[in-house]
Design goal:
Strand content of chain A: under 5%
Radius of gyration of chain B: 18 Å
Shape of chain B: elongated
Distance between the termini of chain B: 66 Å
Largest sheet of chain A: none
Distance between the termini of chain A: 66 Å
Number of helices of chain B: 3
Order of helices and strands of chain A: HHHHHH
Structural class of chain B: mainly alpha
Structural class of chain A: mainly alpha
Oligomer: heterodimer
Helix content of chain B: over 70%
Mean pLDDT of chain A: 86
Low-confidence stretches of chain B: none
Chain lengths: 167, 103
């Protein structure tokens, strides 16, 4: 019962943060709302027993990635008045309609699910098992992920560099 | 014994967050907020992966989520560099004004 109540609170928090991100006109506020939602998602991971992913979620997403977002927003120094009158006011209407259809479709499919959680609901993921699987069975994927991060780092430096004068 | 959270609830949360992310991509004109909405959709998919990992009692889903987070970090770094490059050319982050191919 406690788990269910906690899940409902965290889920409502996550949804409220996502809505706040969409309706706030200021990109900095949107980013902070998203940080809140990501914290709530970390709490959902914790409730599902994935404590390692919850910690990684907070460090990588709420920490590193969102700081990068805020850094870029402040670097570009954007103002609200940069956006003129909306050229497509019907964008909101159609966006709402299609999203409602998507949500109804997904939720109706989920309603048909018959799988259930089994075992002790309070059990946490055994971290040594996760590490063993990551470094033996998925070693190649792990190395490729590190290569992708290296490529991303080089790519960012190349793209963000100012072009040479006269070049 | 503590009652487990129903799987349907977790998947419903995932679906709602995914839909809200899709809504953000559709209605926003600020490319940075659109990008944040894409991150929200990634997180929604991650919740579903963790839930199914738990249901099937193995760790594969959690490992996929781990790699998704790694790739999301790389994706955000590259995406924000593209946004900075776009801003340098057009002096705007309004996606409706990023029409280099049309002109």
């Amino acid at each position: 019962m406690v788990l269910k109540v906690m899940f409902i609170l965290v889920a409502l928090g996550a949804i409220a943060g996502a809505i706040g991100m969409l309706v706030s006109p200021n990109p900095v506020h949107s980013a902070l709302f998203l940080v809140w939602t990501l914290f709530c998602v970390a709490a959902v991971y914790l409730l599902l027993g994935a404590e390692f992913l919850a910690v990684v979620q907070i460090i990588v997403y709420a920490g590193a990635i969102m700081v990068l977002f805020l850094f870029i927003i402040m670097l570009l120094n954007l103002h609200r008045d940069e956006f003129g009158p909306d050229p497509m006011p019907s964008q909101w209407t159609w966006g709402m309609i299609f999203t409602a259809l998507l949500a109804i479709g997904l939720v109706s499919v989920i309603g048909a699910a018959t799988l259930r959680f089994s075992g002790d609901p309070l059990a946490l993921t055994p971290l040594p098992d996760l590490a063993k699987s990551l470094f033996t069975k998925h070693l190649l994927a792990f190395e490729i992920a590190s290569l992708i991060l290296l490529i991303a780092m080089v790519g960012v430096v190349v793209m963000a560099k100012r072009p040479k004068e006269g070049a | 014994m503590e009652a487990a959270i129903p799987l349907n609830w977790v998947l419903a949360l995932s679906a709602i967050l995914f839909s809200l992310g899709a809504l953000g991509v559709l209605i926003k004109r600020n490319i940075i907020v659109m990008f944040m909405s894409v991150e929200l959709m990634l997180n929604a998919a991650n919740i579903a992966l963790v839930a199914f990992s738990r249901v099937h009692g193995n760790l594969e889903g959690q490992i996929v989520v781990f790699f998704t987070m790694t790739l999301a970090a790389a994706e955000v770094a590259i995406g924000l560099a593209i946004i900075v490059a776009l801003f340098r050319i057009k002096r705007t982050i309004d996606v409706d004004r990023a029409t280099l191919l049309k002109e």
